[in-house]
Amino acid sequence: MERALIVITPVTHLDEFRTRASRPRSRRSRRLEHQESLRHGRAMHLLDIENLVGSTRPTTSEVEEVMMVYEALVPIGAMDHYVVAVNHTALVAVGIAFHGVRLLARSGPDGADSALVESAYEDRIDRRFERVVIGSGDGYFTELAGSLTATGLHVTVVSRRGSLSRHLAAVVPDVICLEPPAMHAA
Question: Which one, of 41, 32, 39, 31, lies nearest residue 129 by Cα?
Answer without folding.
Answer: 39
